[in-house]
Every structure is written in C-alpha cells, then in structure tokens.
Amino acid sequence: MAEDLNMKNGIQRKRFMRRLRDLKIQADLTAVDPTRLDLWLMRIDSRLTQYSYQMLDAGVDTKSLHLLTDSILDHDCGIKNGLHRALMLHAIEKSVHSVDLGSTLVEAPVKTLDVFISYRRSSGSQLASLLKVHLQLRGFRVFIDVERLSAGMFNDKILEHIRAARHFVLVLTPNALDRCIGDSENKDWIHREVTCAIGASCNIIPVSDNFLWPVADELPEDMRVIAQFNGVRWIHDYQEACVEKLEKFLRSNAIRLHELQ
Question: Which residues are tagged catalytic?
Fold first, then answer.
C-alpha cells in the first residue's frame, strides 16, 4: 500500500484500512449471495460480515459451512484474525450438533438488521439521528424511521423491521413514556414498538437523556420489563464515551444472542 498507493503515512494507512473494513461490513452482497452467508455472519457478530465477499469468492456458502476448517478460513478465505475464525467455527459446531445447518439458514427467520432505534418524535428525534450516524460509522446496520413519524401514522412494516433487528435501542427523553401509561389497547407507537421488540427477543438497550422513569406499576404490564435492562445515560459533553459504552453493549451481546437462538 505504501508503494502502490504512495501512502507513506502509517496513520493514514490505518485509517484507510479501517474505512475499507467498514465499507465491507456495510456492503450489500444480495446479488452474489443467494444463501445469505452475510446474514449467518451477522448473527455471530456484525464485524464478521467484513469477510463475506472473500468467503464467497473462495466458494463458501451456507450449505458448505460444515466443511470449513481453521486452515480453510485462514489460507483460502484470507481471514487472518484467529479469534474471528474461532467464533465462526464455534457457531458451526453448535449448529451442526443442534439442527441441520443449511436448511435452517435458508428457511428460518434471520436478523437482517443490527439496530432499530425507537424514539419519541416530540423530544427524541435529534438524539436518535445522532446515534444512527455514530453507529453507522462504527459499521452497524441501523434503521430509524423518519418518514413514518413525519407522516404521523403507524406503519405495520415498522414492526417487521423491529423483528429483523438484533438490537433495539430505546431513546428515552423527558416524558417519553408518558403516553404509554394507561395505554391498555396498545395504541401508542412507543408501546407497540417496545412490546414487539420484547416478543422478537431483541437485545433492548435504553439510552436515557434527562429521563425519569415512571413508577413501574404505572406502565402496561407487557412492557414493564424494560426498566430492568442495562442502559446508557446520555451526557452531551461526553458523547464519545456514551457511544463507546453503547457499542460495548451491542458487541458484547452479539455472541450471547446467537447462542440463545
């Protein structure tokens, strides 16, 4: 790289490689990945999707995963990170011992998104948009529905996006849950999104900004559990630290979520 691209500065080369890795993670390979190898990698750890193309280029798909060895991942697929190879092999071993690997990956519902961000339009749109940018820069596939909130109507397709997400980030700004109190018919947007995330076994992470939790018994019974989840307290003067803590929650839960599925 130093000679071919005339990139002499070491820091510049590291930044270039980091950006290249992020682009690999975000790449849409649907056209060349009919068995959705990238989705299998994402279920283990979203960082592993950076290897999707080189694995596909080596002839790997979800039907041949049971044939993979550490040597094949290293030499044929070019995956030099030993820990990443170990994560893949561990996932393959668990799948082979539990169910048929190939048919499950093709037919079973899978998580196609990393993060769904839920927020109250009246007070949380700015923080939600900021979190989206930060997480995307870190390689996460993020969905935030701006159009639905602007139009003022609830679209059932939003629930489909929640079910497809591995993580559900709930932005809690002042009075964000007030409309949920007494919402016995589940008409409030936040209420519906939270209960959908719970039902879809998403990893729920509250991000609170000057937010005070209501008395637990005041919330509808089907969403009270959200008060028990570990979350991030947002401090504007320490945004980077807050985002790093959120990323840590997302990364550390990736493998555990896969093991529970």
Answer: 193
